[in-house]
Amino acid sequence: MYSVLQNKENIKFRFDKFPYVIIDDALPTDIYKKLSESFPKPEKIIGNNEYKENVAYRYNALNSLGDKEISEEWKEFIKFHTSYDFLEEFYDIFGDSIKKIYKVQKERLFTKDNIGVRFEKNNHFNLDCQFVINTPTSGDTSVIEPHLDNPVEFYAALLYMKDVDDNSEGGNLTTYDFKDKPSFYGKSRIREEKVNLIEEIEYKQNRLVMFLNSPYSIHGVTKRSKTNFYRKYINIIGEFNFELFDYRNFLEK
């Protein structure tokens, strides 16, 4: 199975305070096409949850691997992206940033013996590879404002799988840095006037964005225009069973 990180020639590095990479044509065209065509139906991903407009629904690796309706191509994809081999690929790219931000060597992060699929059991390091959809919207609707992810999360990768006929606008990933002193409200949200936009990354077919999570990894998603299409992507996650940082230490005094 091809890794979402395999297209090294197309990697664009953004390795300042907020380390992330962008890879266009992340997967070979034929592989991407086959996966796109067998992406689960929305009904599968929504399941028994109440349907709401412009809401994210997820179907995790543990469910997918045990589901006879998920294609073998997807199962192989999920198995690889929840494996130690994928962790090694991630570390090869982000190792220097990890050492800079977290001051830790690879041996203290994870080994072949202390990782596993998220929700299967409580591993030291848990991996997931989720199908995600955002439901259609009847008007210009925001997705999520600037924020930090859960501090147990170590990395996240988003493989965008926009439908060929989807001509809607928005739903793009945005990255930020603080203008001055870090300031949060709610759980870990940040008001837009407190941050500078680094980059807006368009939601498009076969584009991968992967970032190292830290107190500097501020990101959001732009408004979506009216559309009957689902916003579709794969979310590849690695997380510890403890918090890596406490954003409250960054609050304004």
Structure notes:
The longest helix is centred in the middle third of the chain and has 19 residues, at 84-102. The chain contains five helices and twelve strands. With 253 residues, it is an alpha+beta fold. The chain has helices at 29-37, 42-46, 61-65, 72-80, 84-102; strands at 11-15, 19-24, 56-59, 115-117, 125-134, 144-147, 153-160, 173-178, 195-201, 207-212, 218-221, 231-240. Strands 1, 2, 3, 4, 5, 7, 10 and 12 form an eight-stranded mixed sheet that branches. Helix content is 19%, strand content 29%. The model has no long low-confidence stretch (mean pLDDT 93). The termini are far apart. The protein has one domain (10-241): Jelly Rolls (Sandwich). It is globular.
What are the SSEs and their pairings?
Layout lengths: L10 E5 L3 E6 L4 H9 L4 H5 L9 E4 L1 H5 L6 H9 L3 H19 L12 E3 L7 E10 L9 E4 L5 E8 L12 E6 L16 E7 L5 E6 L5 E4 L9 E10 L13
Parallel strand pairs: 4-5
Antiparallel strand pairs: 1-2, 2-10, 3-5, 5-12, 6-11, 7-10, 7-12, 8-9, 8-11
What is the first-to-last residue Cα distance? 49 Å
Name the overall outline: globular
Sheet bearing the most strands, described?
8 strands, mixed
Structural class: alpha+beta
Please, what is the average pLDDT? Answer: 93
Structure summary:
The chain is 19% helix and 29% strand.
Considering the chains and any ligands shown, give keywords for the structure.
253 residues, alpha+beta, Jelly Rolls, eight-stranded mixed beta sheet, 12 strands, 29% strand, globular
